[in-house]
Write a structure and sequence with these properties.
The structure holds two protein chains of two kinds. Chain A is built from eleven helices and 15 strands. Chain A is an alpha/beta fold. In chain A, the strands form three sheets. Chain A has a seven-stranded parallel beta sheet, with helices on both faces. Chain A has a five-stranded mixed barrel with strand order 4-5-6-8-7. In chain A, helix 7 runs parallel beside helix 8 and helix 10 crosses helix 11. The N terminus of chain A is likely disordered. By secondary structure, chain B is an alpha/beta fold. Chain B has one domain: Putative cyclase (Glucose Oxidase, domain 1). The longest helix of chain B is centred in the N-terminal third of the chain and has 14 residues. Chain B is globular, with a radius of gyration of 19 Å. Classes of the chains: A alpha/beta, B alpha/beta. The interface between A and B is medium-sized, with 17 and 22 residues. Chain A: This is SDR family NAD(P)-dependent oxidoreductase. Chain B: GO terms for molecular function: hydrolase activity. Chain B: This is Cyclase family protein.
């Protein structure tokens, strides 16, 4: 049933779990312009500022006019297949596990000719293709082509699945079921075909009205998980650590405060304990087992998602503690990304402005509906992104940070 | 004389005619703590992080770092805990007179009423009825409210509803009577507070805290095994940690109980 992708079935306990290998990852510093684009799902190539022509692969000077002014710019993501090759045998250890491998030579609409990975639904030479830059298992950008029109079960293409983190047939852990994002996220993951969704709930002795709504979703199971307790996190990892292919950390601790408030350090400690130390406890408990399961079959471990505030990138004075906590989480996420990359696990950070939830009651619009954030996270998994900016505030800060970080700092909270 | 009493006590303990009853619940991460509205400061729950476990961080030894709020698990409330007791002498756990750490206990069994009504309140009539049977409550004794609440756990123990916690405790006039008319040393409960779950709506709010601490008396909460104590005659050992200027602390509460002769 390869046409529909193999369904999850119990592993043969007598067989060894295959260990993850990574595709070749050497890239020039220039080529990380492609990585930057791929991380957020953009299609950007170098475009000469003098002659206006596009160039690929990444280089230091324009191949047409030798100008060194060669910035990355958005490019039309289309092209025509010139020729194709299906590789049957290779000596590369990673690709040996992914044979046969279909690749093609594509004439991009913007000019250059590139070698790209080909989705199996693509037609032969002469067909028009949709191009994208994807982050591969080693964390590097590669070009991939799909047909212009969607075909059924496109997500099951083995080459495409390696470049994404599709929830289909995978088991997910949502770390904090009390987060307003958790319920819409569980629904979106279920719609995307996740086979099981564990939802962590802390302080089960407190009322948890949403449990009924979680129970109504097929495949959802609420489990005890308190990120502030080393024992709780480790106990859950002992139980289900080997069954988590996607982990979404939704934990947060939002408390508006002023830097000179009495007792601020107490609430700051609580916030850091839930967010920063919570992420660290999760990483310690679930990171090692996810990392070794990066090649564990069609639905092996694939992604770790941190749900962060965009104010981790630029402090918002009214939510200074949360901003500082998420800045620390961002730093920690880069550390985690480096560790998990060795197993081919993608660490995705979603950045969001104020949510339309209780703690942001007095914050003026625009605010993000938790359902929009949930949909964006699942979309990011399906497309294989690394950085997701959700909502007007986050997108605005992203663009302005790119332009002038000092201006963002000066204007914060105005 | 004292040597004789203590010697006899030691012999009775060895012989088993005096039993030691542990009135303490286990400090664990998932034990409920008092819940305040989230915009207010919160009491930290019990947490334990491993330092080493005969491993690379300490090859021959096992130990942990622990953290908790002063009012976590089975704990002691000192007078300084409440605004009414803030100006009293010797009002914090480090200045607490050691003699006050040992005292007799009267156990008022309201387990049946609490079973029928989570919001059961101990009033003067209940106290007088108890005294009719067991005699007048002696001065400087602990009064322990037995509700068997400690046999519950998790959500049933915290019993949080949308309008707050529903757990038994003393009525305003009941606790005033114990403090002002009987001169008790302190008041102990099996629930998260010495006050009832809904006591924030009383006048004054939280009367047990208000009157006990305003008069230099103490509180014990999250007690267990009160069903193993006789109505009178038990001796309570309640020595909180000596925390500088501390408002309370988790502690081990022990009771000495003399076996009644069956001869």
């Amino acid at each position: 049933m390869t046409e529909h992708g193999p369904k999850r079935h119990a592993k043969n306990p007598l067989q060894r779990t295959r260990l993850p290998l990574l595709p070749p990852s050497a890239r020039s510093r220039r080529a990380h312009g492609l990585t930057l684009a791929a991380a957020s799902g953009r299609f950007m190539l170098q475009c000469c500022a003098e002659c206006g022509r596009y160039a690929y692969p990444a280089r230091d000077a324009c191949p047409h006019c030798l100008s060194e002014d060669l910035p990355f710019r958005d490019a039309p993501p289309r092209g025509e297949l010139l020729s194709e090759t299906t590789i049957q045998v290779t000596s590369d250890p990673y690709f040996r596990d992914h044979m046969p491998f279909r690749s093609g030579l594509v004439k991009l609409d913007c000019g250059p000719v590139a070698v790209v990975g080909l989705h199996r639904a693509c037609g032969g030479p002469g067909s028009q293709l949709e191009l994208s830059l994807q982050i591969d298992r080693a964390g590097q950008a590669v070009l991939f082509a799909k047909p212009l029109l969607e075909t059924p079960d496109m997500e099951n293409d083995p080459q495409w699945r390696e470049l994404t983190a599709h929830p289909k047939d995978r088991r997910v852990l949502i770390s904090d079921g009390r987060s307003p994002v958790a319920l819409p996220l569980a629904k979106a993951l279920a719609r995307a075909g996740a086979s099981k969704i564990f939802v962590g709930v802390f302080d089960r002795w407190k009322p948890f009205e949403t449990e009924v709504a979680f129970d109504a979703i097929d495949g959802v199971e609420c489990v005890d998980l308190d990120l502030t307790s080393e024992r709780s996190v480790q106990d859950l990892a002992r139980d289900i650590g080997a069954k988590v292919e996607i982990l979404v950390n939704t934990a947060d601790h939002v408390r508006p405060s002023h830097l000179f408030d009495a007792g601020l350090t107490n609430s700051a400690r609580e916030a850091m304990d839930v967010t920063v130390m919570g992420l660290m406890r999760l990483a310690q408990a679930f990171g090692p087992i996810m990392r070794v399961r990066g090649a564990d079959g069609f639905a092996g471990a694939v992604a770790w998602v941190n749900v962060l505030s965009v104010h981790g990138l630029s402090s918002q004075p009214k939510f200074g503690v949360q901003s500082a906590a998420h800045a620390a989480c961002l730093s920690l996420s880069h550390w985690l990304r480096g560790e998990l990359r060795q197993g081919g696990i993608r660490v995705i950070n979603s950045f969001c402005g104020p949510l339309d939830t209780e703690w942001y009651q007095t914050v003026p619009p625009p605010k993000v509906d938790p359902r929009s954030l949930a949909d964006a996270i699942v979309d990011g998994l399906i497309r294989g992104l690394e950085d997701i900016y959700v909502g007007d505030v986050a997108k605005d800060i992203e663009a302005r940070l790119f332009d002038n970080p000092k201006a963002v700092e000066r204007e914060a909270g105005r | 004389m004292s040597g004789y009493i203590l010697g006899a006590l030691a012999a009775a303990l060895a012989h088993g005619s005096v039993r030691v009853v542990d009135l303490t619940l286990t400090l664990s991460p998932d034990f409920p703590t008092i819940v305040m509205p989230p915009e207010l400061g919160q009491s930290a729950p019990f947490r334990m992080e491993r330092i080493s476990h005969y491993d690379v961080k300490g090859p021959a030894w096992y130990w942990n770092n622990i953290s908790f709020g002063e009012h976590t698990g089975t704990h002691f409330d000192a007078p300084i805990h409440w605004f009414t007791g803030r100006d009293l002498p010797l009002n914090s756990v480090d200045t607490l007179p050691p003699a006050d750490m040992i005292g007799p206990a009267c156990v008022i069994d309201c387990s049946k009423q609490a079973d029928e009504d989570a919001d059961f309140l101990l009033g003067i009539d209940h106290i007088l009825a108890w005294e009719q049977v067991h005699g007048r409550i002696p001065q400087r004794s602990w009064v322990l409210l037995r509700t068997d609440w400690s046999k519950k756990s998790g959500a049933a123990y915290a019993n949080l509803q949308s309008d707050g916690a529903h757990t038994p405790g003393p009525e305003v006039e009941g606790i005033r009577f114990l403090v002002e008319e009987r001169g008790i040393l302190g008041f102990g409960t099996e629930t998260i507070g010495t006050d009832a779950g809904q006591a924030g709506h009383f006048s004054p709010p939280y009367p047990a805290h208000h009157y006990l601490h305003g008069n230099g008396r103490y509180g014990l909460q999250c007690l267990a095994n009160l069903d193993l104590l006789p109505p009178t005659g038990a001796l309570i050992f309640a020595a909180p940690l000596k925390i500088q200027n501390g408002s309370g602390s988790p502690l081990r509460v022990l009771a000495l109980v003399q076996e009644r002769s069956t001869g």
